[in-house]
Amino acid sequence: MRNRNANKSAPLLAILLLSLTLGAPAAVRAQVKSAPAAKIAAAEAKNAGQPQLVDAIVAVVNNDVITRLELEQRLRTVEARALKKGINLPPRAEFQPQLLEQMILERAQMQLAKDAGIQVDDIMLDRAISRIAEQNKMTQQKFRDELEREGIAFAQFREEIRQQIVMQRLREREVDSKIQVAESEIDNYLGAEKNTAQARQELQLAQILVRIPENASPEQIAEREKRAQSALQQLKSGGDFAKVSASFSDASEALTGGELGWRSQDRLPKLFLDGVANLSPGQVSAILRSANGFHILKLVAKRDAAKSDASAPAVQQTHAQHILIKINQAVPANEARRKLTELKQRLDNKAATFEDLAKLFSNDLSASKGGDLGWLYPGDTVPEFERVMDALQPGQVSEPIESPFGFHLIKVLERKTDAVSQERQRSAARTAIREIKIEEAAHDWERQVRDRAYVELRTDEK
Q1: Domain contains 144
Q2: I need a surface site. Which of 91, 373, 385, 402 has the fewest CB within 10 A?
Q3: pLDDT per residue as tens digits for the range 396-442
């Protein structure tokens, strides 16, 4: 019996040491590490029968969990980034619920992405991080050193970027790819633009969004409106917008001051334009109601657009073909990629024509036309498809690439510069309308994802 009890004491000692050292100052950790065996034994005896909490579950999201340590790590990251940007956050107790809600939504989206077979391999991730480093005008090594200097582990940063790319792909698949812009909508947009100076103005906005659950009852709507009124009252009493946003907003930008950035007025919903129409920079709007919830807007600044349409550069059009293999239960992602790799080899060896292979293997409606997509304007396709297509030379065929629709081979036939002003205007109008629709649809989709997930909060557990 003595030996059996002695064997059981080792795990307890390890847990005790871990619980003492987690989050403790360096001096304390050093003392624990160098403590004599007698003192360790005394501490173990003193704490016998008093379990030490190392970690705990704070939320269950479908078949996954969010732990206290994960929440604590995110809290520290948010606080560090807010400090760097000069954003004043409220006490943790006030913004922690909002942050946990963000993590719940992210976890639910990542589960949907996994079920859909959406993945980001290390090669694609490395390319994305390389682009981020270039945008910051740094080499990859210098960028990594800068992250470490700011206390951000590079491995953690990589996984954050991987998650962002996965969620972006999921949104493109579930939202962006389903957005259609009718020619009549473009006609109405251009007709209205002739009678206004909207396109010449850009607004910098921030928002607080109190989201309404899907299929909300009148009581739930009233409760959410009361929450929005509390936020507005704090603002009217002189509260800092960034702090109030962190405490009340359900939007993804809640913890970064609620900032939406600069938007031309033609790329903002009419509800927002009407809400800030009579505001001066620095002022906040009344409560605005949309299908997604209650909004409070702040007009941060206003400026004239840099250039008019007349001086805008000509639009490049691309005549392209593609072969699409969709991903489903019968055809997983690796099989779709493998099949297209084989077709690419046949094309490289001139064993078949692109048109013939498209007719035989493509899952797109364009298959009957040999995969011909016609002339494409910027914004006519999803971003990942367009980026690869724009990098190809006429006559060149891409490697297999993934989009929300599946895997593609892309061939560029020819390009031309559209110098017709009316066509450029219609292309710009199509892009502007599409952006507005995507933003509104994305908010609605996120609300549905959150409301349909099974969520059990355990933040009160000690």
Answers
A1: no
A2: 91
A3: 999 999 888 889 999 999 998 865 557 777 878 888 888 889 988 99
